[in-house]
Structures are given as structure tokens and as C-alpha cells.
Amino acid sequence: MSNGIRRVKTSDLELKDRLVSIQRVTKVTKGGRTFSFSAIVVVGDENGIAGYGLGKANEVTTAIAKGVEDAKKNLVKVPILKGTIPHEQSAKYGGAKVFLKPASEGTGVKAGGAMRAVLESVGVKNVLAKSKGSSNPHNLVKATFKALLELRDAYMVAEQRGIDLDKVFNG
To answer: Comparing C-alpha atoms, which of 124, 100, 108, 116 is closest to residue 18?
Structure first.
């Protein structure tokens, strides 16, 4: 658990992948334009473990497959409490800013595009989310993961402070 990043082993996991975005990118050469595809993919077990990956290839399906493989190498564990996040959290990556707020049971995932894919892959059922600034899907996914990695539940706080769980709440 160095640097706050909680890496997870991929064996024994039932991962579902979600395609966040796919772009056709162009490389101009002396022979003309060469087209290829860039795909950003989020994988998760919908139970607190998720990761994202980027795949680039000349065909769409190959780019997605490479993105899924890359995502499986970057899985992280996120604390989820009763289907929502433990506390409010905001994060910034590049020009993309995200704000996550816990929501009561029955609210659902109130989030747009790229953030929705990440939150559903992690397994958050009720959350209010807002993206500010850039709507670039690459940076939105990275900002959302950054916010999720900064979340701490009561068990983590007790462990970091070296005290009992009761003392976290009772001071």
C-alpha cells in the first residue's frame, strides 16, 4: 500500500469491460493519411475493484482488446459503503475537474458519460457526480480514478492513525 495506491491481483475476478470512448486518429505521412483508432476502456467487478486502459490499433476491435488488457494491469481497490462512497471528494487531472458526493439509497448514479462508466464499473450504486472544466474522456476517467483513490473509509483511517475503529468516531 505505498503511495495510497491499492493494487489488486487479476486472478479469480469476474471483470466486465465498458468502452468509454473511441477516436479515429490520423497520422499524416508523405504517402498520405494513415488512420488508426484509440480506445479508452474501463473494467471492473462492480464490487470495489476497477481499472482503466488505453489501446491503440489500426482496427477498432484490436484497439478495444488492447485497452481491456491494459486496464486489467491497472486494477485498484476503492472503498464502497452501503452502495455509495464514504465522503465527498473532488479531484483534477489536466483540465478535467470532478466532484463526487455520496447519495442516499434509491438515488442512482447521477453522472455523465465517462464518469458514469467508471462509477458503474467500480460498483457504486448511489452517487451524485459533477464534471467541471474539460469534457475530454481520457482526462475525465483519470480524474475520476484519482478522486476514487483518495477516498478513505473508517477502517483505513483507523489503520493509518494506528488506533481502534471506535476511537475514530469517539475521538
So the answer is: 116
